[in-house]
From TrEMBL:
Organism per entry: Calonectris borealis
Encoding gene (name): Pcdhgc5_1
Keywords in alphabetical order: Calcium, Cell adhesion, Cell membrane, Glycoprotein, Membrane, Repeat, Signal, Transmembrane, Transmembrane helix
One biological process term in Gene Ontology: homophilic cell adhesion via plasma membrane adhesion molecules
Membrane topology: Single-pass type I membrane protein
Keyword Transmembrane helix annotated: yes
Protein's name in the database: PCDGM protein
Amino acid sequence: AQLRYSVPEDREPGSSVGDLAKDLGVEVQSLAARNLRLVSEGGQRHFQVDLVAGVLLLNSRLDREALCGQSPTCSLHLQLVMENPLQLHRVEVDVLDVNDNAPQFPKPEVVLEITEVANPGTRLPLEVAEDPDMGSNSISTYELSPSEHFALSINVRGDGVKMPEIVLEKALDREKVAVHHLTLTALDGGNPVKSGTAKVTIHVLDANDNPPVCDPPISKVHLEENVPVGTLVTKLNVTDLDEGPNGDVEYSFKTSNNAPGKFTKLFSLDPRTGEIRTKGPLDYEESSAYEIAVRARDKGSPAMEGHCHLRVELIDINDNSPEIVLTSLSSPVQEDATPGTVIALIGVKDSDSGDNGQVHLQIAKDLPFKLVSSFKEHFSLVTNGPLDREKASGYNITVRAVDSGSPQRATQKTFYLRIADVNDNAPNFSSPFDTAHVQENSLPGTSVFSVSASDPDEGSNAKLSYSILHNGMQDVPISTYFRIDQDNGTIYTVRALDYEQDKVFQVPVEVKDAGSPALSSTAVVHVFVLDENDNAPTIVYPSVPKGSAFHQTIPTLAEPGYLVTKIVAVDADSGHNAWLSYQLQETAEALPFQVERRSGEIRVAQALRESEDSHRLVVEVRDNGTPSLSASVVIVISPEENSVQDFAKSLDLPKSSPKDTNLTLYLIISLVSISLVSCVMFAVVAARCL
């Protein structure tokens, strides 16, 4: 919004200028919290804000004449900035003129000369008085002390300045009165009226009775600013009807109250030809027009003079580039900011006028931002679409200001806007399913597998922690078998695993970030337990106590190939670790028996002699693991004449018991499991290769 106040220039410091809280429509108590502050567009701070009362106070006494000179209006521009939300308000304070300056003539005494042959109606121009005040407080009129021969005439110049002139009303007689003393009084229009005086002394001379005359007396010239030094402005046209020295005219500048003497630094006057040329650079932004007064004096005795008034109006050219002022910038901005969120407040200034001072702001169209005009020469940069920090963590925003002049002038300003992260991305595993293998009986703390997840967010939103979920598939919680390092995702065993008890585990792993609210995802790791040869073969038949021997009788006349008995053994391991082989331990003497390596059948290898005693055999059962494990049984074979071979009896195989049935079932399940694991592994490898 824009506020406007007015204050007289003589107001004491600390005086109230306006009620900001009321005019802005905000509570006084919230001004301090919203960090209300005053930003002056000039170099001096003439005002201050009372946050307790919510009013704008005068910080120092104002002098309108020092601030604005002869400008008809005098305004000071301020900016008020409030936060939460960020707002910018423009305040314009008009400094009102007070009649604090009395009129004053450039010289306290003015000496004029007039020939005695001057005709009634002859005019003697006078110096105008100066009054820094403006409007009704400036010079209102002039008064001349009573005189028999002279009267006062006031003419109004094109720029409104009143020019006093003394008019001869009655013919002069130098022999009667050679010098006339008058008093000229300048009165302003203030209340109370202030005045200034100058003494006017008029010498009555004889002879030269034709003054130089300007044609026209008042002229106007248009000139472009920044023309080269030495450019001809105009040549005065002055005529004098006298001859000889009385008609020889010399030119000189005459100062006026319009920036007294200032134009003499910018313009030069040839005293012989009356040519006026530029002497310094002209700047439209410093002054758009100059009033030049020229005195044309002849060389008669007494000399007579005429006055030429020239108004030089400058034509503005586009010689100033726009200026970009970044008033406020909110960086960083959250990536979930809604469209229309104010990012920055930007002001522009161009010292040129008209179209040359009309400025347009623009930014690149591919940015998710746009410019919104707040009020004259002030813009807001707002979001124009969704922001995604994962795609762009920041933007280099270049604001380009272009005026409407010809040729156009442009300037640009670049600033960096950082996008703050929001936890809008859940962590992702590299694969939702993974396979791992671990040897049974591995020590607790053995590393099994490392899962890996990534999160495109940053900071705490990308800080990941891993944990194992209970899937309910095992009777015992999965956490009693495995644990996971919450920082790096490495899975470790908690205790030694037994292949014969559990062959495969499904370990559900959850990864969670540290954002608020936290986001998570899960993956499953299939852990296959690899068998180890940790079970020795168990002899099922014959079943004898440890340290005892099994006694078996055979006929004395048993021939080679005769089946003596059969050793039956099992191994709780699987695969190669469960492949069993049977053999006889070597003895010092040769035995007439042999054992089948795979079946465990003991047969007669050679004919027995009738006198042979019993034989002691040690049968060893060994698996195919690494290292190999074994078991042994002692069998004592005694030949007997009356022994009759009964295969079923000699084997004396025990009937199938539930325990043996379970053992067989375990073997089948082991084989099927191994087959399934192999199929799964082949499928995973094939999928990854594809």
